[in-house]
Design a protein that fits this description.
This protein has ten helices and 15 strands. It has 297 residues and is of the alpha/beta class. It starts with 6 loop residues before the first helix and ends in a 7-residue tail after the last strand. Pfam families: Hydrolase_6, Hydrolase_like.
Length: 297
């Protein structure tokens, strides 16, 4: 997947320059008449960093006014759902309850709880949002390197974005997985994520370091795996054919929609160019490409 290196410039130009609609052979959004549920990615779709992407808020409000279900699905595990509610309000002016927010951290907690992890111990390489969801939703006891625990007592090593990642954390994770019996869980495998002025390393780069050190591949929960998307469908009480996934990445957003059996819309305000989408393999190729969220009409 080729990143859209001109994303910041394109964002600045949105208010002045309308985008063309889909390439030949792709479905026009107007054809999606049976859609009841819209699932939006956040970074690169609703905002870039702390900058609102033009037309994103209006698109959500228009769908809500039409009686549609709206959910937000992000692979970023660093924040709690409550924190994302606050960010959507601050950046986009949107009121979104926690019940509409699905993060890879929340999905990981749901997955572990559903697999009998309540009361067990997780070593967390991640930020406050991940630890909070694992504890409050998953019912796990979370520990860090600062807790000076025996690696052999760890049941799970859970890895997400961690902007304070250190060699000591990597060493402890290695010991818990290789010397102990800990299961390796990744919130997501995104190598990067977009900000206003370009990309920065994502949680997947940290997951990769643990995988390289241990020689063990993790169970991955976030997009393109369908755990979180299926939880949204269950919450909404709809089937995948009634839903559409709207995102800016082919390998996560579009791929999860395809795997789940949903319609897919690529918006060009994030990391992917139209040329990359048109040349992508079938399982990454969106049904619709739009320049910005004015296309959701």
């Amino acid at each position: 997947m080729a990143p859209n290196s001109k994303a910041p410039e394109a964002l600045a130009a949105l208010t002045d320059s309308p985008f063309d609609f889909p390439a030949t052979g792709m479905l026009h959004f107007r054809d999606m008449i049976s859609t009841t549920t819209y699932v939006f990615d956040l970074d690169g779709v609703m905002y870039l960093g702390d900058t609102q992407i033009p037309y994103a808020t209006e698109a959500v409000e228009r769908l809500r006014a039409a009686g549609k279900n709206v959910y937000f699905l992000t692979n970023n595990s660093g924040r709690t759902r409550a924190s994302y509610c606050e960010k959507l309000k601050a950046v986009n002016g949107l009121d979104a309850p926690e019940s509409e927010i699905f993060t890879s951290a929340y999905a990981t907690a749901l997955y572990l709880k559903g697999h009998g992890a309540e009361g067990k111990t997780a070593f967390v390489i991640g930020e406050a949002g991940l630890a909070a969801e694992l504890s409050e939703v998953g019912g796990l006891q979370t520990v860090t390197v600062a807790d000076s625990v025996d690696p052999n007592t760890i049941d799970y090593v859970v890895v997400g974005i961690d902007r304070q990642f250190t060699y000591d954390k990597l060493r402890f994770a290695h010991a818990a997985i290789k010397q102990g019996h800990a299961q390796f869980i990744a919130t997501n495998r995104d190598a990067t994520f977009p900000l206003e002025h370009g990309e920065i390393p994502g949680g997947g780069s940290i997951v990769a370091s643990v995988a390289t050190a241990t020689g063990i591949e993790p169970i991955t929960i976030g997009k393109p795996e369908t755990h979180a998307y299926e939880a949204i469908l269950q919450t909404a009480g709809v089937n995948a054919a009634e839903s559409v996934m709207i995102g800016d990445r082919l390998d996560t957003d579009i791929a999860v929609g395809k795997r789940a059996g949903a319609r897919t819309v690529l918006v060009l305000t994030g990391v992917t160019s139209e040329a990359a989408a048109n040349s992508a393999p079938e399982n990454w190729r969106p049904d619709v490409i739009i320049g910005d969220l004015r296309g959701l009409e």
